[in-house]
Amino acid sequence: MGARGPIGKRSEERMGHRSKDEKDSITKAPSGPPLSLPDLPEADPRWHDIAADWYLSLRESGQAVFYQPSDWAMARYAAELMSRLLSTDRAPNGQLVSALDSVMARLLTTEGDRRRARIELERKPAARQTPAGVTAIADYRSSIGG
């Protein structure tokens, strides 16, 4: 796991000049699913819905480009733990919650986990959308021949 302490800012949010020799490099990965995924087992149908959704979401996550077969096995283990935790009527066991959080952090499932590991997913620029009111006015004008 990466450094302890507060989560660092994304590279585009940082200010100041850093020397090229500094060992503070960031690994950038494209966002979105990897180009080819290994044959991954499906979610276990006995898993809790939230655990299955979490496991399946990893396939669409950008950090999946770094995953090896052992990481996918660890993800299945985490989903199994999560499912057991969510499927019981008893109060959550703090040690189990902590262990699950640790496994999920090692899989870099949150932006904070990735930043601590000095990995950033490149964000796609948001598509510029025309406000609905402007579209309606343009449609009205074209309908009356204006």
What is the N-to-C order of secondary-structure elements (H for helix, E for strand)? EHHHHEH
Mean pLDDT: 78
- Please compute the radius of gyration using only Cα atoms: 21 Å
Instruction: Name the overall outline.
Output: extended
Q: Strand arrangement, largest sheet? A: 1-2
First-residue to last-residue Cα separation: 62 Å
Proportion of residues in helical segments = 40-55%
- How many strand elements? 2
Indicate the structural class. mainly alpha
The number of distinct helices, counting runs of at least 4 residues, comes to 5
The main β sheet shows up as: 2 strands, parallel
State the oligomer.
single chain
Portion in strands: 5-15%
pLDDT < 50 runs, ≥5 residues:
none
List the helices and strands and how they pair.
Layout: E1 27-30, H1 49-60, H2 69-87, H3 94-106, H4 111-116, E2 119-122, H5 132-143
Parallel strand pairs: 1-2
